[in-house]
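Entry: Bypass of forespore C C-terminal domain-containing protein
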Amino acid sequence: MRNAILLTLIGVIAVSLITIGVVYALPPQTPSVMTPSGASEQAVSEDPSNYPYLLRAYEGKLAVFTDDLVQPELVFDVYVRTLPELDQEQLSRGIRVKTYDELTSMIEDYIS
């Protein structure tokens, strides 16, 4: 009886370890990158004339850049570290935004 319980316990532990190993061995599945408003993320390297706004982290906070990519036009009192991990990654790279309406919608999503 005691041996049966011990064997069952060892079996459960072995299956658990194998499952954990398989999960870590599988390649990570990356979801398609979307912004909070549902629009596709635009790379920072795209032509700024088509995407005049850049939403990104600045000194740990949410900021809007226009022509000058060094100093932001607006800095919001929203700490990027409090946002979901995907949003943090996107904001560290920067999100190009085409229109002012899109920009305000995205900011509202991050602030709320």
